[in-house]
Amino acid sequence: MMRTGRPRQFDRSQAVIKAMHLFWQNGYDSTSLAQLKAAIGKGITAPSFYAAFGSKEALFNEAVNCYLDTHAQVTESLWNCELSAREALETTLMNSVRMQYAEGHPKGCMVALGVMSACSDENRRLLKPFEDSRQRTREGIKNCINRGIEAGELEEAQDVVALSAAFDSFLMGISTLARDGVAQQETERAVVRMMSLWDAARAVK
């Protein structure tokens, strides 16, 4: 008679979230199998870990997808045409600040921190989903600016590339502010100040 394996002692979906938090905090290379096993708990053994997730790399890929499907959605308001272009951009910046400072997970943005974390050349390919996400965000910012021009909110003779880069740089920098302990209220005020760049580019009517 075929023997069945011992029933899994942990919630797999919760284990992916715990792994996501570790990778978010430490990056891929700096997160060890021992740390992952300790976070998952329930006395999980190495064989049980590999049976459940396949490998550290496979678990990282699941954790990345989990992040992109949840926390990273704060930037989707860039594409919300029910908001004015300015509202869409400011909403994205404010929601990103609130997400990155929220309790219950590491500070900062996993997508932004992915470009700053030390990752060996052999593992750099694992960060491709983050690169794609950052590129989509850049396109979303440009989309807002172009919508602003088309709606007459911004001057037509606008340097879209430079203005987009300014907002993108600010968005990426929120992670550093959150990690360094800069107060959330200060960062939110910085968003308001940042939007003055938009206002300075308003079309003269």
From TrEMBL:
Entry keywords, A to Z: DNA-binding, Transcription, Transcription regulation
Cited Pfam families: TetR_N
Molecular functions (GO terms): DNA binding
Residue stretches making up the HTH tetR-type domain: 19-63
InterPro entries recorded: Homeodomain-like_sf, HTH_TetR, Tet_transcr_reg_TetR-rel_C_sf
Superkingdom of the source species: Bacteria
UniProt xrefs under PANTHER family: HTH-TYPE TRANSCRIPTIONAL REGULATOR YJDC (PTHR47506:SF1), TRANSCRIPTIONAL REGULATORY PROTEIN (PTHR47506)
Protein name: TetR family transcriptional regulator
Species this protein is from: Izhakiella australiensis
